[in-house]
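Researcher: Last one for today. Full complex below.
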Amino acid sequence: MLRLLQIELYKISKRPRTYIAFAAISAIVFIFQFAFKADGESYMNLMLQNVQDSFSLDKTKAINGYFMCYIILNTLLVQVPILVALIAGDAISGEANMGTLRLILTKPVSRTELILVKFLASFIFTVMLLVWMAIMALFVSMFIFGVDDMLIFRVKGEESQILQITKDDVMWRYFAAFGYAAVALTVIAALAMLLSIFAENSIGPIIATVCIVIVCTVVSNINVPIVERNVKPWLFTSYLVGWKGFFYIGTTEDGEPIKGSLENWPAIRNSLYILIGHIILLLGISVFLFRKKDILS
Amino acid sequence: MSVIVSVKNLSKQFNEIRAVDDLSFSIHEGDIYGFLGQNGAGKSTTIRMLLTLIKPTSGEINIFGKELQSNRNEILGKTGAIIERPDMYKYLSAFDNLAIFAKMSGVPVKRSFIMERLDMVGLAERHNSKVRTFSQGMKQRLGIAIALVHDPRLIILDEPTNGLDPQGIADMRNLILGLSRDMGKTVLVSSHLLSEIEVIANRMIIINKGKKITEGSVAELLNPSNTVVHLESTDNNNAWAVLQQTKWSADAVHNGAYIQVTMHKTELPQMVSALSTAGVGIISVKPRHSLEDYFLSLTNSGAHA
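Model: Here's the assembly. Have a good evening.
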């Protein structure tokens, strides 16, 4: 299994398309950093327009490395599924398209082993992507904008909130958030790989994955009670942005933030369970179908 | 000799189409076994079932004396194959491709070993070149190196001469003969280029519409007593008159441009001598009883064994 995984990672590392994702992330992060460096105050004015009367803050201090990373992740983690689908959607279909799938399966490699290795390689790619994102969005931003207490702007129900997290309470939240994002994106990888089994070129599964994510995201955002009760809880897209929960700090009855706390840990934990359940289900279906599939490519 | 591949009552149904229908055959150790059939006859489907790429609808496959599905990895570890085109990772070098598939086959990968294998197929100098820059012949040679990298006992080649130029076809033929003669390998080779099978295989099967038409040794199936000779001479009327005086008169037909005579292949020099003695100038003598004629006559007649 390890031998196969090494081969798979080597193949991924040699494909130019692998680096498209890293280049895209770098470009987006750079644009954000440049824009905020040049005119961050305007953005802050826009964000604070509803709460300016209640709060007074030093806007230049508010735009720091931690804040930047949060803003970037808010935008980027919605787009990253496409980048994950680029690799995972190609996992089996790309081999079928090249004609190498039949060659691999004439070697003493079991189909279950192959699917698991392809999945693991997609997972590792996803983690690498997030590590790169952490380096670019968090550490480079910390270098450019410095470090200070972190402000989170949040709309909860009808009211706008500003949460403040002290700078010594931030880093662990980022590690946890990136970990959560890895699980969420692995669902996308598992979905893309499942679709990849049915196709003989990678365009189909990649587009199908993106379409499913878009449709499910739209459904996840429909505020109709019957959908909210019966559909939303089972859609993985309802939990894709659950990483934000790590930045919703717990407060005292007086509204004072409690260092090291989370507002709703059980909700985050349940989200993780549902996402992991999706991964197991999608992977199980992939193994089942691939073991039965006739290789005609 | 021991039976290496034993196929019994093998069938494969794709929806409404019965691609392989109750097929049985066996391949013995050291055989070069020709698998003949027109396009769509069911050759590739059968070969894919032998390699576990397709699951049979019914029937039994035993390789090296063991049931295929339950001993898949062990059997495939001793089998090398090229299925149709020799496809590989075009964005990787020849060296990387061979190293990857060697690793998958469980062979310890050392640089010297891989280079030696590439040298065997004449690709050592291009070991660093990306496969996308290779000609079809070079890809085919790399495909052979991949199929043989783990020193398999059984080699399955599906249409190995597809897309090759005449020199490539000759090289492939010599390679297959060498595998059996020099290395004692058992080879199953399918092709619709029947002239290739005729010169390399010692046993063969002919299938049509998924069914076996005949199976046996090439020598048996090529009965030389029915050789059809096309004779062209400087004066066909004179040649015809001479032939009327011989024992072949009953089996001769005058077609104007040439005379067709049916005879035992060994009688051919005798007929040429008789015509020369009678002063007939011979332009060409073409014996036409090849395996191809035999194959076409069987498949066209729809005869089933």
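Chain A has eleven helices and two strands. The interface with chain B takes residues 3-4, 6-7, 10-11, 14-16, 98-100, 102-110, 292, 294-296 of chain A (CB under 8 Å).
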